[in-house]
Each structure stands twice: as C-alpha cells, then as structure tokens.
Amino acid sequence: MGYADDAVYRRPHCFRRQVNRAAAALAGMGLTPENTVRLEVRGRRTGRVRAFAVTTATWRGDRYLVSLAGESDWVRNLRAAGGRAVIKHGSRIPVRTEEILTSQRAPVLGAYLEKRALSKSPASEARDYFGLQPHPPRSELERIAGRYPVFKILPGQPQQEAHHG
User: Where are the beta strands (DSSP E) in 21-121?
Assistant: First the structure.
C-alpha cells in the first residue's frame, strides 16, 4: 500500500525519520544528487527551524518541491511560514515558494518521475508513492495531482534587505 491510497499525511516510522535526518544532513553538505536538497523551514508550532531532505523537480526551467507524502510536516510548515525557506546543497540559498494550483501539477509530477530520487528508480517512485504504472500518461497524473502539494521555488529576499525600512 503506497501513499497514493489516501490523501492524508501518514507520519513515517521512526526508522524512516532517522534516514530523512541523515539524508538532510548529507544534502546540506552537497553530498547527495543535485536534485536532493535540505529544506529548512520554521516550524509552525515551535518556531524552531526544521530540516527535511526533499527532491526537487525541474520543468520548463523552473524548480519545484513535490511532497510525496501529501500533507506532510514540511508542507504545513512551509505554508505557515508564508512560503519562506532555505534550500541547502552545499551553499545556503534563501527562497520563497508558491504553491501551484492542482490543475498545473501534472507536468511537474511527470518531470519529477523522470528524475531519480534518493536511491529510488522512477518506476518505483511511480508505483510506491503515486500508485501508478511506470511512465504514466498525463491523464493519470492529472487524476492524482490533488493529493500531492507542489511548490514553485522562487528567489528569496536576501536577509539584509528584509531588515531595511
């Protein structure tokens, strides 16, 4: 049973959380594939910075974050932070993000599946997370798009400018 079987977030098991922490640390140092990055976002309840390993997708020259787990912690934190975050893959880059409409997600999901996530093949990603056959048609991606939040990555405002009045 994959995440695609229901649209709600299912918290990963303890082992998976530990793997994500390790992957986030490696991604932050730039030791993962280029599309696997460390996402740092302020926690919606604690206000402390939380770090997550996430895989980006590139479509038409723009980069996107795709939540395989649906309404995950990082998605809820990112929304609460007004889309502001930091992406690290060796260097630290402040970014803003905008959640894209469900009707615009299918091509980004397709682009995501064309790339390999950390130690997963595109066919395995399609089956395990999206509940689809390998190389799904666009109509299938459109059918499931509402279950998977997608955020466009935009340049962030430099820290110095944020404090000027």
Answer: 36-42, 49-59, 62-66, 84-89, 91-99
What is the C-alpha separation between 148 and 79, in angstroms, rounded? 14
**Low-confidence residues of the chain: pLDDT under 50:** 1-7, 117-119, 159-165
Three-state SS at 117: coil
Question: Tell me, what's the pLDDT at 13?
Answer: 65
Protein fold of 11-156: Pnp Oxidase; Chain A (2.30.110)
Q: Where are the domains of the chain?
A: 11-156
What SS3 state is found at 34?
Answer: coil
Distances from the Cα of 29 to the Cαs of 24, 92, 97, in angstroms?
Answer: 9, 10, 22
Q: Which amino acid is at 91?
A: S
Q: Which pLDDT value is given to residue 8?
A: 54
The CA distance from 3 to 7, in Å, is 7
